[in-house]
Specification:
The complex is a heterodimer of chains A (246) and B (115).
Chain A: E1 2-3, E2 6-7, H1 10-22, H2 32-45, H3 49-56, H4 75-86, H5 93-101, H6 111-134, H7 187-190, H8 196-209, H9 228-241
Antiparallel strand pairs in A: 1-2
Chain B: H1 20-32, H2 35-74, H3 80-85, H4 87-93, H5 96-100
The chains are: A mainly alpha (246), B mainly alpha (115).
Chain lengths: 246, 115
């Protein structure tokens, strides 16, 4: 398939299409319509005046205000989406705990809903960033599909050093047996394990753009038109620009 | 590889992978959202790497612009082995300052993985 005479490999486009279509499907904690509202909010955050002001402030906590109302999403979800989209490098444990305990106006987010929210934001950021890099128009959001969220919570998930519970290494059994590869399991792969569907969906997408999960720790594995050192330089530079410590 | 390129302070391309400075500029332009600069770097990289190379470079930019947010939003600690192996590098490049950005007035930054 070709986009404006620039050939994009089919597996990459397929991964994006699969992830994009899934935005409209009922998830684990959010309905399809709610997931699409999260996706739309991710885009709206880019032009949010409050976020812009907070980004310039020495501390985002010093700037109060509203991101604007939305019908489908609680205020805590809107706050989470906006902060993750626009200022991820300054998210804090206190901020996350506040969302999960009380939330703005007393509307707390469950930890599972928060994790799934993160996966939606990350998916939109990935696909939109790629489109921007290519100079392409953004994909329109899909239509919502009917159905209820699964509400599946892995029995093995527990507090494990992050803001949200995670499934410990070696304890991904039963329905989660496929979640981790053999060998070393980096924390970034465990990060969203409270919502296994988010892990599967996001890392299928991510793997098509970077290196497959199983090959991450093997520096000899590339399989792309640029070398692994070139890949890792880009990855590290992006992460430095985002001030991402991990 | 000259790791100063990661934090944008590499002075020469000699110690970088091929087209390293251009690849770094691509990341900067895309994250800055500067359409003009993106187009210029994209054109240069298309000449240097070909279509497939350009696409794969953009794919990595997109992938890490996303996964950085997963890491920061979930507050995952650095993997123990990585924390130990990169102590000197992080200090020399100033990367430890990124961890401090997550601190609140009354909270400590995320601790490294225990055990």
């Amino acid at each position: 398939m070709t986009l404006q005479a620039l050939a994009v490999r089919d597996d990459l486009l397929s991964a994006q299409q699969t992830a994009w279509d899934a935005l409209g499907e009922p998830g684990t904690w959010w309905t399809g319509a709610e997931r699409l509202a999260l996706a739309a909010e991710t885009r709206r955050a880019e032009v949010c005046p409050l976020c812009a002001e907070r980004k310039q402030a020495l501390s985002p906590q010093a700037v109060s205000g509203s991101h604007g109302a939305t019908d489908l999403l609680p205020a805590a979800a809107v706050e989470a989406v906006h902060r993750i989209r626009t200022d991820p490098g300054r998210l804090s444990a206190r901020w996350a705990q506040g969302l999960l305990a009380d939330g703005p106006r007393g509307q707390a987010l469950s930890d599972g809903a928060y994790v799934e929210l993160i996966s939606v934001v990350a998916t939109v950021v990935l696909v939109d960033t790629f489109a921007q890099g290519l100079g392409q128009a953004r994909r329109p959001l899909p239509r919502p599909r009917p159905g209820a969220p699964s509400r599946h919570r892995p029995a093995a998930a527990r507090p494990d050093g992050a803001y949200v519970p995670m499934i410990p290494r070696g304890e991904n059994s039963g329905p989660e047996a496929d979640l981790y590869p053999a060998g070393f399991v980096p924390n970034v792969l465990r990060a969203m394990s409270l919502v296994p569907a988010a892990v599967r969906g996001f890392f299928a997408l991510h793997g098509a753009h970077y290196v497959d999960v199983a090959g991450v720790t093997d520096p000899t594995i590339g399989g792309r038109a640029i070398s692994r050192p070139q890949i890792e330089l880009i990855a590290a530079r992006v992460s430095a620009l985002n001030a991402c410590f991990y | 590889m000259d790791l100063q390129a990661v934090v944008g302070t590499a002075s020469a391309a000699g110690d970088l992978p091929p087209h390293g400075l251009l690849l770094s500029r691509l990341a900067e332009a895309v994250l800055r959202g500067d359409e003009g600069d993106i187009a210029a770097v994209r054109s240069a990289l298309r000449t240097a790497l070909g279509d497939a190379g350009l696409v794969d470079a953009l794919a990595v930019v997109a992938a890490f612009n996303a996964i950085d947010r997963v890491a920061d939003a979930t507050g995952i600690p650095l993997d123990k082995a990585t924390h130990q192996a990169t102590a000197d590098m992080r200090a020399s490049l100033g990367i430890d300052a990124f961890r401090a950005n997550h601190a609140d007035d009354s909270a400590d930054p995320p601790a490294p993985e225990q055990g």
